[in-house]
Q: What sequence folds into this?
């Protein structure tokens, strides 16, 4: 069908492609072209030479925002199950079980979950360059803390400090987890760097979730 035996591959495919194996299996020689498919026309016109712009890997606002729907689509089922479980558990109290308490406290927890997703999967990647720190889990944790403090203010004002603390820790941990998902999509972090960040971030997030869960269950009995 074609007169040549060359296959233009994306530059970022290089770590996963062995050119000699490619040639052996299909008879085509792999040529690593530009980062983006949109630059292939210019790459060919330039004699199959990629200039600095074609080689540059960026992580602009638009490129960060493109990832948001993917992250939300990957996580919504898990958060939906968590929300359902929290709704059921929110009714546990001194009187054994209260449907009204389950509804009221469940709504507050659902709002906290939705806020955590928005903060971790939308606000953090959008504001990434301006948030202090280097690691994504930390950026999400910081943003979750700021948003969480504003969210728990009504609960704290009505004298429910354990509810407020539980919601705050949950927002921080969930937002941190969502933000950490963007680590593998950035050109700033190596594979070993991603693994290192996940080990550190997951430990903090697990502690936060466990503490939030304990405070949320204990609140009706302590308050």
A:
């Amino acid at each position: 069908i074609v007169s040549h035996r060359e296959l233009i591959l994306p530059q970022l495919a290089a770590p996963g492609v062995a050119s000699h194996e490619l040639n052996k299996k299909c008879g085509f020689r792999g040529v690593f072209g530009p980062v983006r498919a949109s630059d292939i026309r210019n790459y060919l016109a330039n004699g199959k030479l990629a200039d600095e712009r074609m080689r540059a890997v960026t992580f602009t606002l638009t490129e960060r925002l493109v990832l948001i729907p993917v992250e939300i689509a990957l996580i919504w089922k898990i958060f939906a199950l968590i929300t359902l479980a929290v709704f059921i558990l929110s009714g546990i109290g001194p009187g054994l079980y209260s449907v009204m308490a389950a509804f009221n406290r469940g709504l507050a927890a659902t709002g906290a979950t939705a806020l955590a997703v928005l903060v971790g999967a939308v606000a953090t990647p959008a504001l990434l360059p301006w948030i202090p720190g280097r690691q994504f889990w930390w950026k999400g944790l910081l943003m979750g803390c700021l948003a969480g403090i504003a969210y728990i203010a009504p609960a704290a004002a009505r004298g429910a400090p354990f509810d407020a603390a539980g919601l705050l820790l949950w927002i921080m941990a969930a937002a941190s987890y969502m933000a950490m998902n963007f680590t593998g999509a950035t050109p700033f972090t190596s594979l070993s760097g991603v693994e290192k960040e996940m080990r550190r971030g997951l430990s903090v997030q697990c502690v936060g979730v466990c503490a939030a869960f304990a405070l949320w269950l204990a609140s009706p009995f302590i308050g």
